[in-house]
Automatic annotation (TrEMBL), chain A:
The lineage of its organism: Eukaryota, Fungi, Dikarya, Ascomycota, Saccharomycotina. It comes from Lachancea lanzarotensis. InterPro entries: PRTase-like, PRTase_dom. NCBIfam families: PRK00129.1 (NF001097). The keyword Hydrolase does not apply. It holds the Pfam family UPRTase. This is uracil phosphoribosyltransferase.
UniProtKB/TrEMBL annotation, chain B:
It holds the Pfam family PRK. Residues 276-457 form the Phosphoribosyltransferase domain. Belongs to the uridine kinase family. NCBIfam families: PRK05480.1, udk. GO terms for biological process: CTP salvage; UMP salvage. SUPFAM superfamilies: P-loop containing nucleoside triphosphate hydrolases, PRTase-like. It is an enzyme of class 2 (transferase). InterPro entries: P-loop_NTPase, PRK/URK, PRTase-like, PRTase_dom, Uridine_kinase-like. The keyword ATP-binding applies. Pathway: Pyrimidine metabolism; CTP biosynthesis via salvage pathway; CTP from cytidine: step 1/3; Pyrimidine metabolism; UMP biosynthesis via salvage pathway; UMP from uridine: step 1/1. It comes from the Eukaryota. PANTHER family: URIDINE KINASE. This is Uridine kinase.
Length: 216, 484
């Protein structure tokens, strides 16, 4: 992987298992139940990885044999923000690790005329400025809508170094854009694809994630 | 913030090591399970002498599920059409030694003695033939009782036996017993029975059966007080079995002590979960006695899912697959066949992994083995095993267990899998919490050729001091299932 210079990218270890999971979800012949299951598995790995970068605080607990154990505990204070619609598919994976996590939503659509992303709607936790934010969107291609979402978050007072952008596949182009504009935002991903096709889809990619997860 | 490069190296792949480990399999394992040293008792005697009731008394008094009673009746030779006709007319000699396939009986008992899963034929007395496609499968027995008129006849079979018993009784009594049995429970007529007795049973008994008495270690006179004699034999058997289980325990405790110890971190067959902040935080929650059961189950499932997934990271990418993506790209990518993964849970504590296994591979078939420690001696005992059919065809067999303390149950379970044709390099032990001694015993028993994935291994040094006592108490499954 050529992600070496990008200190803002956290790439999942490219294990045999992970490569196998990606092969399943990239295959156009994979049927929806399998696509959902295996995409969910990757999402779970991304969430676990993202959580590993959050701070913890020392905590001493008492064990069932009445001894003290020096452990650590979560600091909490996180929230998820999904970019509607495809990003919502990642909420379940986040909930499976953090049951009562708050989840905000952002709707960004591409303007048919200008082909530029346009913000339609946002609903975010009030105290989001104090929180670590997991921004959820499965694909980072050109990075246009994700960048807009991050601007929304920063405008609401979230510190850029507290934003983790979780996605399944990203492009070199998207990483470059983030590196230039939001160097402190961390991208947690499982695969970096070689480029974009003329329709701005990732290559090889997996098609339209939202369609495959929800519709086809 | 961890850079990408540093991150990957900290999770370094272990597949190379797995290969090295696999090569060590050629050495024979050091663990000898109780079923490869079964105690074999032969009980012979003339027809109607009371062998069956002596055998029943013995098995009842041993009273363990791993005792199996095999009747030589199962090994009668199938009859040809003419012989079958003779048999219907009571003119076939079932009491001569050739009527029974003692060579097959020998093969079966020998295979049991080697600890293998063995199929015993089923004989139909109506058709005078083996019931096609039907066999009784026997596995894991550490006491085998072989009963039949020619149990003490066949020299190689005698070689296999640890104790040979002849039940001696007057032939008149035998006749009386035979008549009542054949007429009442087998629905034969009196005349036929008498004819058979005179023509076959009695001459054979005198000619072939009674002389086998000289092969016996003990003779039970079934006319006098059968109770005293049988009890004496039973006492003897019990003392031998105690000795056998003591040896088994000693052997188990010897494992793990024999070698120059290399540090846990250098053991190539052991992979401990990276102690990331999340893993440590989850461990803390699970150790806290004030954690609610709701939380305990939730967080155990979470860490178990991480662990199961970690164990599958090294799964082999069996082939390259040419796929077309929905955007029309044709690419060749490594492919993994998750259907080739199965798992075996050691009841009850392994059942804590049920949900995380299903979460990792949805269609996974899950087998179970029940191994319990004897409440007096602590000896692990195999009660039953339910394994997926054709388990030897799977590429990965995950053996799951919440806690390893002595390691005995896992050693036994691995042996069960080996006996069913699963090679060590296909097995992976997945355990949440283990003691160092348990891990060393398992490793040692199978010459380092078994891969172990643990969330945490508590070193022996830490166990010695007071604060890690929890690693020696079985708290995980009690809390997960909410009952001790």
């Amino acid at each position: 992987m050529s992600s070496e210079p990008f200190q803002n990218v956290i790439l999942l270890p490219q294990t045999n298992q992970l490569l196998g999971l990606y092969t399943i979800i990239r295959d156009q012949n994979t049927r929806r139940p399998d696509f959902i299951f295996y995409a969910d598995r990757i999402i779970r790995l991304l969430v676990e990885e993202g959580l590993n970068h959050l701070p913890v605080t020392p905590k001493i607990v008492e064990t069932s044999t009445n001894q003290k154990f020096d452990g650590v505990s979560f600091l909490g204070k996180i929230c998820g923000v999904s970019i509607v619609r495809a990003g919502e598919s990642m909420e379940q994976g986040l909930r499976e690790c953090c049951r009562s996590v708050r989840i905000g939503k952002i709707v960004i659509q591409r303007d048919e005329e200008t082909a530029l992303p346009k913000l339609f709607y946002e609903k975010l936790p009030e105290d989001i400025a104090d929180r670590y934010v997991f921004l959820l969107d499965p694909m980072l291609a050109t990075g246009g809508s994700a960048a807009m979402a991050i601007e929304v978050l920063i405008k609401r007072g979230v510190k850029p170094e507290r934003i983790f952008f979780l996605n399944l596949i990203c492009s070199q182009e998207g990483i470059d854009l983030f590196h230039a504009r939001f160097p402190e935002v961390k991208i947690v991903t499982g695969a970096i694809d070689s480029g974009l096709d003329e329709n701005r889809y990732l290559v090889p990619g997996l098609g339209d994630f939202g369609d495959r997860y929800y519709c086809i | 913030m961890v850079g990408t490069g540093a991150f990957i190296s900290s999770f370094e792949h272990k597949s190379d090591e797995v290969h090295q480990v696999g090569n060590k399999e050629a050495q024979s394992p050091k663990y000898i399970p109780p079923w490869t040293t079964p105690y074999i008792i032969g009980i012979g005697g003339t027809s109607g002498s009371g062998k069956t009731s002596v055998a029943a008394k013995i098995t009842a008094s041993i009273n363990t599920p791993w005792t199996v009673l095999i009747s030589l009746d199962n090994f009668y030779n199938p009859l040809s059409a003419e012989d079958h006709e003779l048999a219907v007319q009571n003119k076939f000699d079932f009491d001569q030694p050739d009527a029974v396939d003692l060579d097959l009986a020998y093969e079966c008992i020998k295979s049991l003695k080697e600890g293998k899963k063995t199929s015993i034929p089923v004989y139909s007395f109506n058709n005078h033939n083996r019931v096609p496609g039907k066999t009784i499968s026997v596995y894991g027995s550490s006491v085998i009782v072989v009963e039949g008129i020619y149990a003490l006849y066949h020299a190689p079979l005698l070689e296999l036996m640890d104790l040979k018993i002849f039940v001696d009784v007057d032939l008149d009594v035998c006749l009386a017993r035979r008549l009542s049995r054949d007429i009442v429970s087998r629905g034969r007529d009196l005349e036929g029975c008498i004819q058979q007795w005179e023509q076959f049973v009695k001459p054979n008994a005198e000619r072939y059966v009674r002389p086998t008495m000289k092969n016996a270690d003990a003779i039970i006179p079934s006319m006098g007080s059968i109770v005293v004699a049988t009890q004496t034999v039973i006492n003897h058997i019990k003392s031998r079995l105690q000795l056998k289980s003591r040896r088994h325990l000693e052997e188990l405790s010897d494992l793990g002590h024999v070698r120059e110890l290399e540090p846990l971190s250098k053991m190539t067959n052991l992979c401990q979960l990276e102690p990331t902040s999340q893993v440590v935080a989850l461990k803390t929650i699970l150790l806290d006695k004030y954690t609610s059961r709701d939380d305990f189950v939730f967080y155990f499932d979470r860490i178990a899912t991480i662990l199961v997934s970690r164990a599958l990271d090294d799964i082999s990418t069996s082939f390259m697959k040419r796929i077309i993506t929905p955007t029309g790209q044709e690419v060749t990518l490594p492919s993994v066949d998750f259907d080739k993964v199965t798992s075996i849970s050691i009841v009850r504590s392994g059942d804590c992994f049920m949900r995380s296994l299903k979460k990792t591979v949805p269609s996974m078939s899950i087998g179970k083995v029940l191994i319990q420690s004897d409440s007096h001696t602590g000896e692990p005992q195999l009660h039953c095993e339910f394994l997926p059919p054709h388990i030897e065809d799977y590429e990965q067999v995950l053996l799951v267990e919440a806690q390893i303390i002595s390691g005995a149950a896992v050693i036994m379970a691995i042996q069960v899998l080996l006996d069913h044709g699963v090679s060590l390099k296909k097995m992976k032990v997945i355990v949440y919490l283990a003691t160092e001694i348990g891990i060393r015993r398992i490793t040692d028993a199978f010459n380092d050729a078994i891969q172990i994935y643990a969330c945490e291994v508590v070193p022996t040094d830490a166990l010695g001091v007071d604060h890690c006592r929890w690693a020696r108490s079985r708290f995980v499954d009690s809390r997960y299932f909410g009952c001790d």
